[in-house]
Amino acid sequence: MTEIEQLLARVAAKARNTRPWGWTSLPEPVDADTLARAESALGFRLPPLLAELYLRIGDGGFGPEYGLLPLLDGPPAGEPAAVVQYLANRADARKDPDWSWPEGVLPISHWGCAMYACVDCHAPESTVLLFEPNADGADHAWFVDAPSLTDWLRAWVDGTGWYEETNEELGMRPWTDFRIRTTQARAS
Fold first, then answer.
1. pLDDT of residue 136
2. In the chain, at which end, N or C, are there fewer CB atoms within 10 A of the end residue's CB?
């Protein structure tokens, strides 16, 4: 069994046994057609590991705090699905020159208080970013939550993420590519 297969098995086991806030059950996984419709709406492909989470484990409803957002349909609490939230953020960024949402940065989990965990779908390692608009002194409130989606999932399964009560002192570094990515997006 490969390292990724082992990680998927661990994530699936935890997903079956824990419910994030607002979820009463683990939704069924999406089918290949739903994934294709999501990628078509987004205009880019999901990283392979993220696609496998939706295809094999569930359409959201697992993961830290409020859990992964569903891909296309809204979760029980009424929060928009990942694709809907991304498209809304990009539309807002086109309307407001003082606010930007980087292309290819897909919100995957809501933390509350307008905070999102996001996957940089254009980064080879699928960096997980934290959008924290309430932070003081941050460059547009973007931080590197984990260097890769693999690391982010391991932190959740192992209970070592910054959001765990015992790890609240863990700091995150600002996402320095924010200005580059939003400047490139505006130029195109």
1. 65
2. C
